């Protein structure tokens, strides 16, 4: 891969241009890295806070097992219990580390480090067993994304 940088004092913000004959795995990797850089360089706060027993606690991302929406509320599950969050799932997706958190359905995000195992025996979906014993499922819409992440 060739890399070329042009310095132009009239340029207001950096611009990335990829010239390629086709979108290869290498190009996809570059795009993903650019996206991750933009994600972490943005002004989006990384802190996640939740309410449990009428107390607000700062939740460490590495402690999160899953985040899900139910009944119009958003909940985070850790080994210490379940917390109510004030953000919506899409807002939390922006705050979470994209290397370890993945959306598996319209209403759920899981922490990949907290997955005990994936069961691929179900036709059209994937069963996920989490470290806290919870069983959940990848919706059909997200199956291909999960398979790509898992390298299958």
Molecular structure report:
This protein is α+β, with helices and mostly antiparallel strands and 152 residues long. It contains three helices and ten strands. The protein has helices at 25-41, 89-95, 140-150, and strands spanning 48-52, 55-59, 66-70, 73-78, 81-85, 101-105, 108-111, 115-119, 126-130, 135-138. A seven-stranded antiparallel β-sheet has the order 2-1-5-4-3-7-6. Strand 3 and strand 4 (73-78) form a beta hairpin. The protein starts with 24 loop residues before the first helix and ends with a helix. The model has no long low-confidence stretch (mean pLDDT 89).
In short:
The chain is of the alpha+beta class.
Strand content: 25-35%
Output the number of helix runs: 3
Q: Any idea what the radius of gyration is?
A: 19 Å
Q: So what's the overall shape?
A: flat
Report the strand count. 10
- Major sheet: 7 strands, antiparallel
Going by helix content, strand content and strand pairing, the class is: alpha+beta
Mean pLDDT: 89
Please report the distance between the alpha carbons of the first and last residues: 26 Å
Give me the strand/helix succession. Answer: HEEEEEHEEEEEH
């Amino acid at each position: 891969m060739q890399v070329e940088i042009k310095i132009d004092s009239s340029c207001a913000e950096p611009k990335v241009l990829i010239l390629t004959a086709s979108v290869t795995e290498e190009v996809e990797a570059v795009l993903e890295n650019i996206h991750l850089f933009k994600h972490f360089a943005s002004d989006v706060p990384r802190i996640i806070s939740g309410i449990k027993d009428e107390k607000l606690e700062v939740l460490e991302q590495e402690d999160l097992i899953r985040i899900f929406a139910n009944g119009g509320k958003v909940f985070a599950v850790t080994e210490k219990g379940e917390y109510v969050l004030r953000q919506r799932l899409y807002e939390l997706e922006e705050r979470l580390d994209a290397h370890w958190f993945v959306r598996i359905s319209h209403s759920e995000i899981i922490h990949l480090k907290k997955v005990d195992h994936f069961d691929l025996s179900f036709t059209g979906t994937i069963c996920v067993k989490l470290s806290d014993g919870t069983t959940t499922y990848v919706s059909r819409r997200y199956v291909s994304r999960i398979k790509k992440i898992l390298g299958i």
